[in-house]
Amino acid sequence: MKADLVLVISPEAPLMKQLGKVLGKMVTPYDFSTIERGEKYIIIQHDETGLVVAYTSEERLNVNSINKNGCSTCQPCKENYTTYTTKLGRKRVRMYQYDYRTESGELFSCCAPTLEACRKKLGEWLKEHNYGNQDK
């Protein structure tokens, strides 16, 4: 089934708020029926108007995976990273998952709030393991 509208939701732009603007009135999840749940999109239909909406989140669209079947895909002397969102207390925080593989094949992996913080951890790890300057 094709959707009349595609929305990307986020904490700043929740689904019902976006749908309320489109429909011109306040709506709740009870005003919709779920048609399909896919890997990336959920498709719903507004019961009153018949409007079909596909929605997803940035996290679901982020297909930039740095591993395959749980194993890092990082190549020697290269870095791979991706972002994800997690909750710390009541606050949603964007984090980086970061991998770096040395020329000899040893893997460094970490998570941090910024890419710069990941690279700083990598620098400390490289010094600790006597790798000197590796090309990133």
Can you offer a commentary on this structure?
- This protein is of the alpha+beta class and 136 residues long.
- Helix content is 20%, strand content 40%.
- The protein has 3 helices and 9 strands.
- The chain has helices at 15-23, 58-61, 115-128; strands at residues 5-9, 32-37, 42-46, 52-57, 67-68, 71-72, 78-88, 91-101, 107-112.
- Strands 1-4-3-2 form a 4-stranded mixed β-sheet.
- The protein is elongated.
- The mean pLDDT is 86.
Roughly how many Å apart are the termini?
45 Å
- Strand runs, count: 9
Helix count, DSSP H or I runs of 4 or more residues: 3
- Average residue pLDDT: 86
Task: Describe the global form.
Answer: elongated
List the helices and strands in order.
Answer: EHEEEHEEEEEH
Binned, the helix content reads 10-25%
Rg: 21 Å
- Spans of at least 5 consecutive residues with low confidence: none
Largest β-sheet summary: 4 strands, mixed
- Strand order in the sheet with the most strands: 1-4-3-2
| Helix-strand category | alpha+beta
β-strand percent reads: 35-45%
How is this fold's topology laid out?
Blueprint: E1 5-9, H1 15-23, E2 32-37, E3 42-46, E4 52-57, H2 58-61, E5 67-68, E6 71-72, E7 78-88, E8 91-101, E9 107-112, H3 115-128
Parallel strand pairs: 1-4
Antiparallel strand pairs: 2-3, 3-4, 5-6, 7-8, 8-9
